[in-house]
Design a protein that fits this description.
Blueprint lengths: L2 H14 L14 H14 L2 H6 L8 E5 L5 H8 L3 E6 L2 H14 L5 E4 L12 E7 L8 H11 E12 L4 H10 L10 H8 L10 H9 L3 E7 L13 H14 L7 E8 L4
Parallel strand pairs: 1-2, 1-4, 2-3, 4-5
Antiparallel strand pairs: 5-7, 6-7
The structure holds S-adenosylmethionine.
């Protein structure tokens, strides 16, 4: 499939329902709706707090790429950051606009834009943050280059991308390959066709290190601790215990679905 066509499909998928809103039953754009989104997100994905460290970016100029329904973006604003946000979809930007006006907050700039072609000058932001986004974009590497380009020298980049060698990816393989009689499907293929928008990718640690090797960044941390998704939070206790034991044996910080990457852009010579 050509990349423009795939990107259109990605856009259509996320325009149908903003990310994180699929399990929410409250009336759209009401206060209850947004509070349910926030409560659900941080119950299921509490690692976001220690990774993002929102309050450390008070007064800093930050860009969030792929704001989705805006739950993390809200935390940057609450922390007093100078907030810029983009998303590929109008639906996401509508969510954030309603959400910010409800709480009396203001983003410096919020717009529909593409991570592969950021509408910002180079060396612009103290921090660029993107949680669960660039693996959905057809050209993930181009998005990464763009992120580095707009970050100030010495600035911080925080990214979450999916980890292919994770327990969650294995569960997806069982569900969509093994149990469907397609044991020869790779994890890659399963995730491409059955993980959220079409064309989703997930990376290994080795691939990420290879990609980063030639880029003007220093890796501050690269970890994928077991998440609630890996630990089967929605299943009965015995399944959760089993997942817990497997995660402990395989390396707790390597088998999680969320690969969290913190980088620092190198200073120019
Ligand atoms: C899984 S959601 C994550 C949203 C949000 N970061 C969160 O964690 O809830 C993926 C988001 O990435 C956006 N997205 C996908 N490709 C993009 C691109 N090339 N540029 C900007 N946003 C993109 C989608 O529109 C969607 O809102």
């Amino acid at each position: 499939m050509n990349q423009a066509h795939l990107k259109n499909q990605v856009k259509n998928y996320w325009n149908t329902a903003a990310c994180g809103t699929e399990f929410i039953n409250q009336q759209k754009f009401s206060r209850e709706y947004f509070e349910a989104i926030e409560s659900f997100r941080y119950t299921i994905e509490p690692e976001i707090f220690s990774f993002a460290q929102f309050t450390r970016f008070h007064d800093k100029k930050i860009l969030e790429i792929g704001v989705g329904a805006g739950t993390d973006f809200l935390q940057w604003a609450r922390a007093g950051a100078d907030c810029y946000g983009i998303d590929l979809t109008e639906e996401a930007i509508e969510h954030v606009k309603h959400r910010f006006s409800l709480y009396g907050l203001q983003a410096t700039e919020l717009q529909v834009a593409d991570a592969e072609k950021l509408p910002y000058a180079e060396n612009n932001f103290d921090m660029v943050y993107s949680w669960g986004v660039i693996h959905h974009s057809p050209d993930t590497i181009k998005s990464l280059h763009e992120i580095i380009r707009v970050t100030k020298p010495g600035g911080t980049i925080k990214l979450m991308i999916y980890n292919r060698n994770s327990l969650f990816a294995f569960y997806r393989y069982v569900q969509y390959a093994l149990l469907k009689g397609k044991p020869f499907w790779s994890f890659k293929k399963v995730l491409y066709y059955h993980q959220e928008s079409p064309g989703t990718k997930a990376f290994t640690f080795k691939e990420v290190r290879t990609i980063l090797k030639d880029l003007p960044v220093t890796t501050i941390s690269l970890v994928a601790p077991a998440t609630k998704h890996d630990l089967l939070y929605y299943k009965a206790k015995p399944f959760q215990w089993l997942a817990y034991v497997i995660a402990s044996l395989c390396g707790w910080n390597r088998v999680g679905w969320f690969m969290m990457i913190e980088l620092q852009k190198k200073a120019e010579n």
